[in-house]
Amino acid sequence: MGSANDEFTPLSQLTVGMNKCRVRVRISRLWESFNPKNDISFGLDSLLIDDQGETMQVRVLPDDIDQFEDQLVEGRVYALSNFTIEDTRESYMTCSNELTMYFGGQMVVNEIEDTDLIPLYSFEFINFKDLRSRCDDVSVLTGRFFWN
């Protein structure tokens, strides 16, 4: 008989178009993104981490924010299903994963028992000598992080 982990798909095994699976993840960070030119919301963004330490960015589109913003709490662990996986074609991503998860109206969010198997935070360090090469690269955020 399989373990309880068998019912969850690791983030590393998700592919474009996949939607018939469940993931167990921690919401490491949660924020609303705005266009700095006109202050219009891009949506609610989050960084997910699974028990293998893999990360993926999530986007809740502006029309769906009200449905999810009270359900999602930074630092908590969730079982998620009925999401959409797409290629990342955006700038200023918080991780180097080439896929992005999108939450929509059919998304199922269940808070589950916290587990020490899933880290609270994830960082992608680079060598100092490679930092200059990131100056004009806006695909993944690089630099300081400031708390409000």
TrEMBL record:
<protein>
    <recommendedName>
        <fullName>Replication protein A 70 kDa DNA-binding subunit B/D first OB fold domain-containing protein</fullName>
    </recommendedName>
</protein>
<dbReference type="InterPro" id="IPR012340">
    <property type="entry name" value="NA-bd_OB-fold"/>
</dbReference>
<dbReference type="InterPro" id="IPR003871">
    <property type="entry name" value="RFA1B/D_OB_1st"/>
</dbReference>
<dbReference type="Pfam" id="PF02721">
    <property type="entry name" value="DUF223"/>
</dbReference>
<feature type="domain" description="Replication protein A 70 kDa DNA-binding subunit B/D first OB fold">
    <location>
        <begin position="8"/>
        <end position="110"/>
    </location>
</feature>
